[in-house]
Design brief:
Elements lengths: L10 E3 L7 H11 L5 E8 L8 H8 L5 E9 L3 H10 L6 E6 L3 H12 L9 H15 L4 E4 L9 H12 L7 E5 L11 H18 L3 H7 L9 E4 L8 E2 L4 H12 L5 E5 L19 H19 L6 H28 L6 H24 L6 E2 L2 H7 L3 H16 L6
Parallel strand pairs: 1-9, 2-3, 2-5, 3-4, 6-9
Antiparallel strand pairs: 5-7, 6-7, 8-10
Length: 411
């Protein structure tokens, strides 16, 4: 995707294939002497048994500029936490595994619940939020990056390109969002971005008119990418969604808190693939069906907060407009894939569009029925205001879990 196009809303930083990884690494290593760079890895225990994470750790072990790696571990019992400690032990950097299911962490969750500040549900959003809290408590990083643990095409150049825009002091960027083509050498992937988000944003502009927020979201080539980097000064005020709207929610926070000139998107890889979610047509609470509903709700909530009035008629019109635009885009994706020797199951894609169209109505009805729903985890500034000792307790609990459950070192 080597071009130099700029969309005029946010800066796009391309990979023009004129600078190698060694050169990027050298500069980042020099910068990291004064600007500490940390990485968050939100992980399910099952990902330790998958095909991707072992290779990711091997790549990260060769990164000299990382000050700290924070692994948030979900859905693990004590034996699995002990195993995770051993799994990540080969990382040479300062690193910690936060066992989100430990008795100490459960007690801290109850402490937040007593204040009405606990995350509404467990998932990637609450995992990332906890890891951010830990880094705030450490108070020694200038830059943090986040990427997923199931990237099967991972290369450490992805991380270097992700952190570079926010790590370099002369650059103005407070946030960098990654983009790439979702291909695996055989298929064109990225169904939710291609078949939901892109046509939905076009349809919203048709139905409700021009909105700067919609133009901002449309500026991102891959708005649902799980890779982003931030300067840590923005972390205490960041509102993290607890549902599947995390990526859209973070972009919405960037729109709310940051000037467009301080946000960029950066090309990370020539191809990118990771674990694929089931469509889950039969169960709206799972898979891409759940994800599509949560993404729609996140966008509707943000537009409503900016003054857009939604009614059942608006959502019905939006569904029809979306459906037509999605089919138009599908034709273009099909031809693009064919020209590049990639496959698309056109029938399956049209069935996916039909499901997403129904979920636009579902999300709209949920929004109308529960207008005060706010599935955001409180900001760390609010937690600190309500319980000034919480972050200290949190950091101590992580240290105590690590000390108690780390396997003994063998000579």
């Amino acid at each position: 995707m080597a071009d130099f196009h700029q969309n005029g809303n946010i800066t796009t930083l391309h990979n023009l294939r004129t600078r190698g990884l060694d050169d990027l690494t050298y500069e980042l290593t020099a910068v990291s002497q004064n600007r500490k760079i940390s990485l968050i890895l939100p992980s399910l225990y099952s990902e330790l048994e998958g095909p991707a994470l072992g290779h990711i750790i091997d790549e990260l072990a060769q990164v000299p500029y990382l000050h700290r790696i924070v692994i948030g571990l979900d859905r693990a019992d004590e034996a699995q936490y002990r195993a995770a400690q051993g799994f990540f032990a080969r990382l040479p950097q300062n690193h910690v595994v936060i066992w989100n299911d430990s008795p100490r962490m459960t007690a801290l969750q109850a402490r937040l619940a007593d204040l009405g500040l606990a995350p509404g549900e467990r998932g990637k959003g609450s995992n990332v939020w906890s890891c951010m809290g830990y880094l705030i408590a450490c108070a020694d990083s200038s830059v943090i990056a986040i990427h997923d643990c199931d990237i099967t095409t991972y290369d450490r150049e992805l991380l270097a390109r992700l952190v570079y825009p926010v790590a370099i002091p002369s650059f103005p960027y407070q946030m960098a969002k990654g983009f790439y083509p979702r291909i695996d050498g055989h298929k064109l992937n990225g169904r939710v971005t291609r078949l939901l988000v892109s046509p939905l944003l076009i349809a919203l502009k048709k139905v409700i008119g021009d909105r700067d927020y919609l133009d901002f979201l449309r500026s991102f080539r891959y708005p649902l990418s799980g890779e982003f980097a931030l300067r840590t000064t923005s972390l205490p005020d960041l509102r993290i969604p607890s549902d599947w709207g995390l990526e859209i929610g973070v972009l919405s926070e960037a729109w709310r808190n940051l000037a467009p000139k301080s946000v960029c998107q950066v090309e990370l890889a020539d191809e990118y693939d990771h674990k694929h979610q089931d469509l889950s047509e039969e169960d709206a609470s799972q898979g891409l069906s759940r994800m599509s509903t949560d993404i729609c709700k996140a966008i509707f909530r943000k537009l409503a907060a900016d003054g857009t009035v939604f009614t059942p008629n608006v959502f019905r019109t939006l569904k029809a407009t979306y459906y037509r635009r999605a089919l138009d885009l599908l034709e273009g994706y099909y031809n693009d894939a064919k020209m590049n020797g990639l496959s698309i199951d056109r029938h399956r894609e049209e069935k996916t569009v039909e499901l997403f169209a129904e979920n636009i109505i579902r999300a709209g009805q949920i929004f109308l029925d529960h207008p005060h729903e706010t599935p955001f985890i409180p900001t760390w500034n609010r937690v600190n205001a309500a319980d000034p000792d919480f972050l200290t307790s949190f950091k101590r609990a992580v240290a105590e879990d690590t000390a108690e459950f780390t396997p003994p070192q063998t000579a």
